[in-house]
Amino acid sequence: MVHLKSEEEVQLMREAALLVSKTLTQVATIIKPGMTTLDIDQFCMQFVKDHQATLSFYNYHGYPHHICASVNDVVVHGFPNKTPLKEGDIVSIDLGVILNKWHGDHAYTFILGEVAPEVLQLVKVTKESLYKGIEKATVNNRVGDISYAIQEHTEKIHGYGVVRELVGHGLGKSLHEDPQVPNYGKRGTGLKMKENLVLAIEPMINMGTHKVFTEEDGWTVKTQDGKVSVHFEHDICVKNKEALILSDFSMIESAEKLNPNLNTSYY
Ligand code: MF3
Ligand code: CO
Hints:
Layout: H1 7-30, H2 37-50, E1 54-55, E2 67-71, E3 74-76, E4 90-99, E5 102-111, H3 117-135, H4 143-157, E6 161-162, E7 168-170, E8 177-181, E9 198-201, E10 204-206, E11 212-214, E12 221-223, E13 229-231, E14 234-237, E15 244-245, H5 249-258
Bound molecules: 2-amino-4-trifluoromethylsulfanyl-butyric acid and cobalt (II) ion.
């Protein structure tokens, strides 16, 4: 069932989305080689709790951590662990919070130090594709218009692999609401969007094949060819002329520009 939000509810969802952005901004400030993703998990957990919110992912269908930390060939749902991060890693941190009953859910990929130019390009194109999708999230467009825009930019134009098994989604009092928002598809198909539909749009784009597999832990999704994958996610609200982006990358970007351990040379 699709739940359209009232203006007041959109404002509350914006608060939730911004708390995720603020948490990721703190991550952008502290992340460095030698730190573990479990350290980041604990930091995020504490930061969110200090802001009178709870964590959406913890125990969601049995998910055993507070955040997802997906490094290099891990596409999504990576478990935070004790392996120290190292120069050259790319790290997607995906975080969900519940604030005043409403979910915020978004993700950002960080680049630690020097990486191959191809990796920088993949990160750049994946982020661009998210905005190309968001551009289509307007009243009377269809969900397939978002999907097509993301796939066109990443797969058609740049030859990357668009993950099929995992998709974006409606967001509200539940983490996953209708409709699903695939990162591949046909223009003019799917749900016709109405004002104040809130979506989490989240391209997961692989350098090589789109094929993925799930590890024995039942969660960790990896690329089949072992090549890297990038994930960005925004929460947006469908509007007439232009979608309203509820989450905020600009604060994360300002923080990562100030962190000498992070590579921001792609933008
Ligand atoms: N952003 C992801 C999603 O919306 C993260 C979910 S992780 C889970 O599906 F543990 F909550 F499943
Ligand atoms: Co999501």
